[in-house]
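Changelog-adjacent note: as of this version, every example in the card shows the full chain rather than a window. The one below runs 304 residues end to end.
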Amino acid sequence: MPVLSLPIFSSLNSAIASIFGDNNRILHASPVAGGDINEACRLELTDGAWVFMKANKKENLSFFTAEATGLEAIARTGEIGTPELFCYGTDEKRGGFSFLLMEWIRGERRISHYWETFAHQLAALHQSPSQAFVTGGKYGFCQDNYIGARSQKNVANESWAAFFRDCRLEPQIRSAEHYLGTGDLKKAGRLLDHLGDFLVEPENPSLLHGDLWSGNVIAGNDGKAWLIDPAVYVGHAEADIAMTELFGGFPQEFYSAYRESGLLQPGYEERCDLYNLYQLLNHLNLFGRSYLSSVRRILDQYDR
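Full-length structure tokens:
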């Protein structure tokens, strides 16, 4: 995948003037709730346009370059909606901050058969060619990125099980050692040693959203489901679907429609919790011990 094509600016005002016209400036900034990593707000411009902005500390610009690269990768498939990206950059005001500007999502009424349409579009994304997004292997991505506020390794690998072991489970387990007891760590070690006994290779690798829970799916400006806040990589489509089931799940019509694609291989139900062990370990490392019992349950489940 080519280097991110978005323009970068050294001030927010210059970004607004360059992207939206020399006479445009910010009239008002309204905070937007929803995230716990970045500040978010709606910018109202002098011509009446609205723009969505994410902001963070200046040194965290990589959050936004990674997010933009992921959204751009999804958009390049042409299979499912994402907000239009305008630019990113840094600004020295307020002690210095980084920012990402993108299309404001108006919150349109959902189309009829919203969930079935989303399932078919997601399946099309998962079935789209993925070779351009990773070099030197079938699985991984063109750059490392983030899962929430934590770094996510995307080193290329020819094996799905090896990639999931080396770039997903092992780094999270290592970070969680101070939460896990001796017995937990022994179970985790056995799981890593025998991960190939549980995971199957997909028929074709898929470009994944990577953090596909309900908060990262939103009705876009066409009334269809759009994807936001990705943690993109190339892997097994089952990992995305497992993530949708972790925190409440989507309506049943979504799953029925997605299964029509045939991307969920026999035994998916036995692998679902294993995929989500990665997400739960990440939550344990981000938010603390409230996720420890769920992690231990899955380690017990796969301890053979």
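Structural remarks: Residues 268-287 form the longest helix (20 residues).
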